[in-house]
């Protein structure tokens, strides 16, 4: 019997999840709460306050949802999985304890340290004075991370003295990250290539999906402030079978084993953010959900059933699931509002979407206004291009970007560029 699926969230990641479920032969209907202007075309959008867990729970009960999939991290950290399980409802994700792998940088760092999972050296600090005193010993470059959730923007890389002073002012004087920075993790800065590895976990076992590389900085050349992500591509030349095998054995499995030992088996998506230094993987961070915009390139390359994969994960039967991937490369370019990640305007009419109905565009910050689609966020659209190689996929994505327009449209022009540079070095896919 076909199943009803509820996707929680309103961004590009959620549109990609909805898109994957909508074309799945195992799914009868897809709901998205609250959704956006793009999900509205292929699912039933339902207005809901994700911060109100009881409201979300009632929605799932009223609609007789068979499987709920959580997009953003905040409901997971707030214990939505605990609430659903108590009510006897099937939901994919870790409990509130497991969600600390993302909601507390220091929780994750301490767990990795106890289980000898490779990571940069780190120190826990609660005051400006503690950070300043450690900086004298450690020397720059350093990374300062807010311990709690900060919408992907609570990480500051300090390579110069003025950057370090600005970081201290931002965190301790201005309180930009609020309660998320009551504690901070001061870490040694690693230099290498970033790699995002995504796994689906059932408590004991895991299946690795395609890898991706995100582009966090706002401007070309990886300059400017951190954002939620300005683009991504998948797979990456870095993710050789040998490396992915190591990530599974040395990072993912020990993490799952540690959570079992603590009495909280980890289920759901596990996003492992890595820095590859001279071929060695180090964990920069864990996330307890799929990435955004990485989901927008990972899922379109998945040829097997996403529903079957996630359903088996909730059943503890992940070993039976298949993960089949396309041989193509996918690239997504984020079209953002002028000013993002700072202040930006909303309500701008988006033009050109009707000319590319046969192309893949995931909506993020959009809403329907009468017969128009208008902007409603910082990251507006995700143009997804495909090709037999990275270069052709990049060209395909930017063709879509050119066809769409709205006032103040901003996008990076070098998405996938680091991958092309890496290919020139002659990586071997061993």
Please describe what this structure looks like:
The protein is α+β, with helices and mostly antiparallel strands and 430 residues long. It has four domains: 3-93, 3-Layer(aba) Sandwich (Rossmann fold); 127-182, Dna Ligase, domain 1 (2-Layer Sandwich), CATH 3.30.1490; 193-320, ATP-grasp fold, B domain (D-amino Acid Aminotransferase, Chain A, domain 1, 2-Layer Sandwich); 329-424, Alpha-Beta Complex (Glycinamide Ribonucleotide Synthetase, Chain A, domain 4). It contains 13 helices and 22 strands. The strands form six sheets. A five-stranded parallel β-sheet has the order 3-2-1-4-5. Strand 1, helix 1 and strand 2 (27-34) form a beta-alpha-beta unit. The model has no long low-confidence stretch (mean pLDDT 94).
